[in-house]
Structure formats: structure tokens, C-alpha cells
Amino acid sequence: MKTLTKQDKDYLILGACFAFLSLYPVFHFYTQNYYSLEIHYLFAGIITVLIPIFAFTFLLFLISRKLCFSFYLSSALGIMFYFINPKTASNFGILLIIPLILCILYLLYKAGTKKPFKDIITVISIILAVFICFDFISVLLKTKGGVRNNFKNSVSSISEDKFQNNKEINSEIKRDIYIIMLDMYPGETSLKELFNYDNSNFAYELQKRGFYVFNNIYANYSLTSMALPTMLNMNYVEDLNFKNRFDAINNAEIFKLAQQSGRKTVYFNHSSFFRPVKPKNTTMINGIMSRKIYKYGLDEVYNYSYIYLKCNYSVWKRLIKENKELNPFVKFKDEIVKYKEPKLVFAHIEMPHYPYFFDENGNKQTDTSITSDKVINSQWLINKDGFLPHLKFTNKEVLNFIDFVFENSDTKPIILISGDHGIRTNHYIKDWDKHISDILDDKLSIRTRFTTFGAYYNPDNKTNKIKEAKSLVNLYRLFSNDVFNTNYSTIPDRHTMIFCGIGCENYKYFKNSKTLSSKEFKKLYEPKNNLE
User: Fold this and answer.
1) What is the pLDDT of residues 81-134, one digit of tens each?
2) CB neighbours of residue 165 within 10 Å
3) In sequence order, which ranges of 364-432 are alpha helices (DSSP H)?
4) What pTM did the predictor assign?
5) Sign of the alpha-carbon dihedral angle for 391, 392, 395, 396
6) Span between the terminal Cα atoms of the chain, in Å
């Protein structure tokens, strides 16, 4: 192989710098959200950038026979992955940008690679590399802000002594226990206010089966990442001594109680952002759709870039064809019949949460404009055409699952169904900090974020105490008292609004929040008159 010329070396240096510049958003996004994103998200982002760069390098080399220049040109074009935004630029505009960049690069090529230009790009790359090193060091040391180091908050109003440590476990007949958490399930009043939809038939069908259905129980947090550890530990997330949400769930009190009562514990996970969860001594069932790239993870990295968006559509189209895999209840039913011993099964079902893969009859949605919500000027808007059919299908699947469990159980089980939060409206994926006051002034938006769903079935029907629960944290406390003979007292209801972009499961954002007591919440956001 011939010795590289000085110009070829310059092209290699610049090409490497340009490639690094196009990768920087991937590294930075991952280090800022490492508690939310597994390591495969980082590799997926790197591959999504590098494969087109190398492929385009190969094609240019076949034409020009100049490898170094081909790599330089291709890596420079790779920066467009981040900067081209189809939400604000038309396809025609993108076609104009590409030749413009090509012309600029060609002029640089004809003029020779100028040393000052090379030095500037190299210095920028070195500075960004230093930033990335600091990012990853802070990840390793887990020293970056907010509650991500430890849930415990020094201004906590809840004392530890209210939490019982020595429990008398119920030794009576060990019924199976099913806890079904439906992600982003709204309260009935929210559906009426937002969509003029009457969901009372779902409650009626549950009542026919012997359930007590709560009338608009309230969530304690507006995000799953805070709500789920709170529910499973029956205490507010900032009052728990765990370093992150996964640790809190892995050591959750509800699983310990079930195990002490002689029950096997099973966790059915249908959420990509909770894949690292592995509760102690608990069987994990992976019910996640085969989403190699989860929509709102890398979308944030590439700013809805044109090339990535096209790749994303192809992934969705492939998934839509896999109809059985997209319905978590199919696998859920197949798996739980394998366990004959007394058990507690917790199922995190990411429905009616988007993506909305099904219509109300369970037919696969082939129109990708329906399966996703919409983003206009960085504001996240609920897609009614996708959400309502998906909600109706969710209702049918929940009822079918209950009937299935009743038919396949030797003794009637205990079943708790709840949401984790309501529908997030008036939500922003970017510049959310500029809209905090607007969001807090939007009474409907706040109300629908916290109004969620709850239903309870216990064939022993020992107590009506659980009916007194007004929020999820106390629902789970009273549920524990009912099924495990614990003696948890109820704690003051409070509701915390988390302000951040879509997918911000990182606890450093917890400091960007607004907490209200139940009294304050009702005064500010409850309608004066009940809906008809």
C-alpha cells in the first residue's frame, strides 16, 4: 500500500473529527440518561451513525478511487444525522441542504485542506472528547445531581417509624395474587373531559365480576419512574433509601411480603425502560415487544433526524407484522399457567400507553400516523385516533385475562388493577422549562395527569377499609393490610408534578418538580362541579 500523502492524512484526521462530531450527541444523551437507557441504546446510536458513514465511504470510493477523501466527505455528511429535522424542514429543503454542503466540501477539496480549518475542527473534537470523559466518569462515580444518588430527601415529611418492620403474615389460604398495572391509564372523568368518551362500561363489566371500582383514584407522580417504586414499596420515592428506581423495585416491599407469606413472586415486564429490573428471588418474564430501537429513546438523540425517522418507520412496519408478539396479554397468559404453586404476579403492562398498535377489535394498525402521538413545535399531543381504540382493546384484554384466570385457578385469586399516572397533555419534549408556568396554569392538563384508575377483587371480602384509598400509595398500603395482614397506616396524600422532556426517567430531573398536598391539589385543580 502506497504511503499516504500529507493531504490524505489531513482528510483522515478531518474525517475522524467529523465522525466524532456526529457521534457526540449519542454519547452525551446516553450519559445524561444512563439510568433510563440500557447499554444497547448507546451501541444502537453509534451503529446508526457509523454504518451510513462507512457505507457512503465505500460507494464514493468506488466512484472516486480516493479512500481518504471519500471518508472525509462521508463523515462530514454524517453530521446531518443530528441537524436535519423533518419536523421543521420539508423534503425539498433537505434536498437543497445536501448539495449546498457538497459544494462547500468540494471547494475545500479544490483549495486544499487549509491547516487552520483542520486545527479548528480537531480542537473542537478534543474539547468534546474531554466533556464525554467527564460525563462517563460522573456516571461511574454516580455523583451527578438530584435524587439519582439516593432517593432519600432531607426535607421529607414522612417519618420512617410509620412503616412497619415486623409484620404478621397472613397464614390463611394462600390465594394467588395478581397486580396488573396499566401504564398511562386515565380516570373516567379525564376521558370525558379530553375525548368526550364514556368508559363506564369497563367499570360495569368489572363490577359484574365482583370488583370494587374506584371513582378516579389519584396518582402520586406524573411519571412511571417515580410512581412504580412508590407503589411497590408503599412509600413515597423520596422517602426510600435506594440509589435508583431499579434498586427500589429489585428490593420492593411488596415482593418481600409475598415471599414471607409462602408465595412465589413473578414479575411480568412490558416496558423497555424497566428491562434492567430483576427483583430478588423473583421470576422475570419478558413481555417486551421486540423493539430493537425504542421510539422515544433515540428520537431524542437525533432530533427526529430525517434518516433515523425513515429507519424508525421501517422498524414499526416490521413490528406491526408480528401481531402475536405485540400483544403482551398473549404471552402473559401463556406463561402464568406454568406456575401451579401459590404466587404473587406483578404485571407492568404498557397499555393503553403508546405505541397504539391495535384498534378496538385487536386488528393491527397499519397506519403509522395512528400508532404514534404527534409532536408539533416540541409539544406532545395525544393522538385520539390511536389512543381511544387502543384503550378499548386494553379493556377487552384485561377482561379476557380476568376470565382466563378465574377459569384456570383452583381457588379464586385476589386481583388489583391500577394505573400509574394519567394522560400527559400540554407536555413538551424540548424547552419544557420555558413552559412550567403555562403547564401549572392548565388545570385540565394537571388534572388528567394525576387522575387514573383502580379496581380491586378479593373473594374473601374481609374489609372495606381499602375503599378509603384516595391515591395510589395508600391504595397499595391498604391492599397489603388486606392480603398480608400488615398494619400500615395511611400517609398524607401528595402529588408531585415532574417537569422534563419525554423519556426523562433520570432522577436528576426530580428537582424540577412541584409537590402539592391533597388539599392544595383539589383546591387548585379539581372542577367545582362534577361532570355530568
Assistant:
1) 555 544 444 444 445 455 555 665 655 555 555 555 556 666 666 766 776 676
2) 6
3) 368-371, 384-407
4) 0.73
5) negative
6) 82
* Separation CA 150–CA 293 (nearest Å): 29
Distance between CA 350 and CA 166 in Å, rounded? 34
Distance CA 482, CA 476 (A): 10
Q: How far is 196 from 87, CA to CA, in rounded Å?
A: 29
Collapse the DSSP code of 514 into the 3-class scheme (helix H, G, I; strand E, B; otherwise coil) and give the result.
Answer: strand
Buried b (16+ CB within 10 A) or exposed e, 517-527: eeeebeeebee
Q: Name the amino acid, one letter, at 265.
A: T
Q: In whole angstroms, what is the distance from residue 221 CA to residue 494 CA?
A: 9
SS3 412: coil
E strand intervals along 13-162: none
Distances (CA, A) of 295 to 84, 220, 314, 316, 530: 18, 26, 12, 9, 37
Q: What is the DSSP letter of 135?
A: H
Q: CA angle, 329 as apex, 327 and 333 as ends, to 5°? A: 140
Residue with cell 431499579: 246
Q: At what angle do helices 384-407 and 200-208 cross, to 10 degrees?
A: 0
- CA 320 from chain centre, in angstroms, equals 20
Q: Show the 3-state SS of 185-229.
A: CCCHHHHHHHHCCCCHHHHHHHHHCCCEECCCEECCECCHHHHHH
Length of the chain: 532
Dihedral in degrees, nearest 10, Cα atoms 217, 220, 222, 228: -100
- Contact 235/221 with Cβ under 8 angstroms? no
Looking at mean pLDDT, say which of 102-116, 363-377, 509-523 comes out highest. 509-523
**Residue 11 burial (10 A CB sphere; 0-12, 13-18, 19+):** buried
Q: How does pLDDT run across 403-432, given as a tens digit for each residue?
A: 999 999 999 999 999 999 999 888 877 677
What is the structure's pLDDT at 160? 39
What letter would DSSP give residue 272? G
> How far is 399 from 201, CA to CA, in rounded Å?
11
d(CA 407, CA 340): 14
The backbone torsions φ and ψ at residue 160, rounded to the nearest 5 degrees and listed phi first, read -65, -30
Segment holding 200, helix H or strand E: helix 200-208
- 383 Cβ contact partners less than 8 Å away, ≥ 6 residues apart: 354, 356, 369, 370, 372, 373, 374
Check residue 446 and report its DSSP letter. H
Q: What is the pLDDT of residue 435?
A: 84
What is the Cα–Cα distance from 422 to 419, expressed in whole angstroms?
Answer: 7
Distance in angstroms (rounded) separating the CA atoms of residues 532 and 530 = 6
DSSP assignment string, 314-330: HHHHHHHH-HHHH-HHH
